[in-house]
Amino acid sequence: MSIDAAETSRIIEMAWEDRTPFEAIEAQFGMDERSVIQFMRLNLKPRSFKLWRSRVSGRRTKHNKMRLSDVVRGYCPTQYKHR
Asked: What are the residue boundaries of the structural domains of the chain, listed by start?
């Protein structure tokens, strides 16, 4: 799978977002959670990767099955700014 710079940036952005579940990344890019972790390890500085892992580990919003049933979207409505 070939990923360009724009897709790399978007995957990293989605992985950092608290409310974007790993399932959304898999649906859009075909990368399961394990693949996202490997991707982040390769594309972040070691310290940034460590911070990211500690941030997402155990976070309920990063997994659809662990989310509250009233959360039905993967992003904040104000996330995408239109010019």
From this structure: 5-66
Q: What is the pLDDT along the chain (83 residues), one digit of tens a residue?
A: 688 999 999 999 999 998 889 999 999 999 999 999 999 999 999 999 999 999 998 777 776 665 556 555 555 556 655 54
Q: Which amino acid is at 73?
A: R
What is the Cβ-side half-sphere exposure of residue 21, based on CA atoms within 13 angstroms?
Answer: 15
**Among 42, 47, 37, CA closest to 15:** 37
pTM for this prediction? 0.74
What angle (nearest 5°) sits at the alpha carbon of residue 49, between those of residues 82 and 27? 50
Length of the chain: 83
Strand ranges, E, within the chain? none
Residue 67 burial (CB count, 10 A): 16
Q: HSE-up of 52 (CA within 13 Å, CB side)?
A: 20
